[in-house]
Amino acid sequence: MSSLTNGTNGASNGSASHFDENAIRIALAAVQDPDIGQTLGALGAIHNVEIEGATIKAYLLLHAPLHFAAERINAACREAVKRVAANARIEIFVQEKMPERPQNRPLANVKHLIAIASGKGGVGKSTIAANLAAALARKGATVGLIDADIHGPSVPTMFDLEEEELRGTKNEQGQFIGHPMEKYGVKLVSMGFVMARDQAAIMRGPMQAGYLNTFIEQIEWGALDYLLFDLPPGTGDIQLTMAQRVPLTGAVIVTTPQNLALADVRRGISMFNRVNIPTLGVIENMSYYALPDGSRDYIFGQGGGEKIAKEMNAPFLGELPLNVNVRKGGDDGMPVVLNDHAPLQQRAIMELAEKLAAEVRRRSALGQQTPTVQIAI
Ligand SMILES: Nc1ncnc2c1ncn2[C@@H]1O[C@H](COP(=O)(O)OP(=O)(O)OP(=O)(O)O)[C@@H](O)[C@H]1O
Ligand SMILES: [Mg+2]
Questions:
Q1: Chain segment 105-163, per-residue pLDDT in tens
Q2: How far is the CA of 125 from the centre of ligand 2 (A)?
Q3: Does residue 55 register a pLDDT over 50?
Q4: Whose CA is nearest to atom 1 of ligand 1?
Q5: How far apart are CA 158 and CA 329, in angstroms?
Q6: From the CB of 154, is ligand 1 less than 6 Å away?
Q7: pTM to 2 decimal places
Q8: Where does 53-162 show beta strands of DSSP type E?
Q9: Angle 24-27-33 (CA atoms, 0-180°, nearest 5)?
Q10: How many whole angstroms separate alpha carbon 149 and alpha carbon 234?
């Protein structure tokens, strides 16, 4: 890894290079960022180009998160440079443009905070949250998942950690600092690690919100690319606490296609709108059931997710059909995206994660003012 250097002095060895630095810069500037829909030139992404003998080094500044985008941008840049410098050895260095975060606040080292929500119960929020977290970790991101469903925690079952208890240490001020559990590369905290289900179920709203604060402020999350929040259904205290305490990048809204779900989902999206939390996208779960003959049974109706995304002016991230492997993954404690014997479901969820990452990048590009920089690759 090489760090960024300032200045635009290209042929640093002083000898006349047969590569045209200006042509290389122009070629790179014309490359499209696939997620943001603008050229690297327009995005100010080309920090420097250096020519050292037969080697061309391009230094790029790109919006995070890059786990899915890096390969594609890298390939497009190489192709562009090759066209104007056929036999060059090409090295591309990337640094991430970081989203702005208020410092000295909890979660200051977490790049993207995303709530997985829906106005409606039982639509698959927890299933989607667990699978997105595992999918992002599988792609190399550092990921945490807060099970904010304090009444009915799902994370212990979905990650096969039912016997686990939250452990921690006291800091210098004598305050308890909890260590998240870790499974499949995902850092996890759940009410299920703190108290038994039947005890949790009788907690009142303000107490629940208090626990969520503890999960945010008194857990040693460290540096994360993503922290996902698996929210309970509805629009109560927990959702309000989220809006007030957590600098959310946005919310992912999960729905099933049926009209009954859509009405609740609309209410959910409106609540996030009211507190200025953007909707990063809509995921339609249980979209259909694939029959053995290849036809589809649209058990809950058809097209509801796309319809509501359009109506709410939010991106449609995709769908996950009803499938026994998805349900089993939840019950057996291994998200289906990690199950190589379920390639269709695996692909569907990886695509949802990729679309989500793309939308986070797009939003961060739209909202970016003065980037701070951290080395990524
Ligand atoms: N695509 C799917 N295919 C098959 N089963 C699914 C699918 N999605 C979710 N399920 C199953 O449906 C049930 C409800 O899912 P889940 O617990 O994720 O919903 P939820 O929205 O989090 O519910 P709650 O509102 O209670 O928190 C679970 O048993 C889960 O395994
Ligand atoms: Mg749930």
A1: 778 899 999 999 998 899 999 999 999 999 999 999 999 999 998 888 999 999 999 98
A2: 5
A3: yes
A4: 322
A5: 7
A6: yes
A7: 0.90
A8: 55-63, 89-98, 110-117, 143-147
A9: 130
A10: 11
Residue from 188, 128, 161, 171 nearest 326 by CA: 128
Residue owning tokens 């998160």: 65
As a whole number of angstroms, the distance between CA 256 and CA 38 comes to 33
Q: Can you tell me whether residue 243 is helix, strand or coil?
A: helix
Cβ pair 223, 107 in contact under 8 A: no
- Residue 242 has which token pair? 């989220």
Q: Cis before residue 257, ω within 30 degrees of 0?
A: no
- Phi, psi values for residue 321, rounded to 5°: -70, 160
- CA-CA-CA-CA torsion sign (37, 43, 45, 46): positive
Pairwise pLDDT comparison (127 vs 201), residue with the higher score: 127
Does ligand 1 lie within 6 Å of residue 330's CB atom?
yes
- Mind listing the domains of the chain with CATH numbers? 21-97 (3.30.300.130), 110-365 (3.40.50.300)
DSSP single-letter state for residue 116: E
DSSP state of 349: H
Q: DSSP alpha helices (H): ranges in 178-323?
A: 197-201, 205-217, 237-245, 259-274, 304-311
Ligand 1 atom closest to Cα of residue 122: 23
Give nearest CA residue, ligand 1 atom 18: 124
